[in-house]
Amino acid sequence: MTLELPLPIGRLLAVDWGDKRIGLALSDELGFMASPVGVITRRIGKRPPLAELITRAEELGALGYIFGLPLDPSGAETDRSREVRDVTAKLAARHALPIRLVDERFTTSAALRSIREQGGSTRGRKDDVDALAAAMLLDGVLRAAKQGVLLGEAVTP
Q: pLDDT digits over 57-108, tens only?
């Protein structure tokens, strides 16, 4: 049995890992609200940008990471979820901040729907969509934590 540590109190950085872009969102210091904070662009065929992710986390004052785990609609692992597991294991070995993997199914579609419902167009706004998806993931984690529920699974080095 592994001991599940609570989320650290302070800023958490949510990560929506994609092929071309990595959406980022940050919570406020009290864990009430999540806000999109941009994206990191990935270069095809290059190693994952872990150093850039660590730099962004440090610049933003993050005390932990929440990574979206991209499962398929039935909850099964995918090639992308295996990639995220590999990336978070490498990140955990390089950076001492706690990392949690949280089911991210439907966050991108929810972000698209939210933009459309506000009367906006999603055309040419892929960066906004990815960062908003990360914010929606983080918002769910924060809401659950307020009710004493710890979502996801811890990543250990």
A: 999 999 999 999 999 888 899 999 999 999 999 999 999 999 999 998 756 6
- H or E stretch covering 31: none
* Helices 79-94, 50-60: crossing angle, 10 deg rounding: 60
Rg (CA), the chain: 15
Instruction: Say how far apart CA 60 and CA 1 lie, in whole Å.
Output: 33
Domain assignment of residue 71, given as a range: 12-155
| Close Cβ partners of 100 (under 8 Å, ≥ 6 residues apart) | 7, 64, 65, 66, 67, 141, 151, 152, 153, 154, 155
- The whole-model pTM stands at 0.86
Tell me, yes or no, whether 7 lies in a domain: no
Q: Domain with 74 in it: what CATH number? A: 3.30.420.140
